Amino acid sequence: MGIPGDYGDEKVVQAYERVIAACRRHGKHPGMGGVYAPELxxxxxxxxxxxxxxxxxxxxxxxxxxxxxxxxRGML
Length: 76
Fold this sequence. Notes:
- The chain has one domain (10-73).
- Helix content is 57%, strand content 8%.
- It has 3 helices and 2 strands; from the N terminus they run αβαβα.
- It has a two-stranded parallel ribbon with strand order 1-2.
- The longest helix is centred in the C-terminal third of the chain and has 17 residues, at 57-73.
């Protein structure tokens, strides 16, 4: 499609609409990864998406580590 990572692009939205419709026809739960913006995730949930990966283990661990380090740096 030439638009990597642009989950808000209408071409991507239309592709996911087709996937969600196919999942419904076959009794499957659709899922996707890479959606980090809450408003975009809401759009896909409203369309019928049931599993959305909103980050990676590494990103979540790093965010927690940064928050912990910042709180301890504030004590010094």
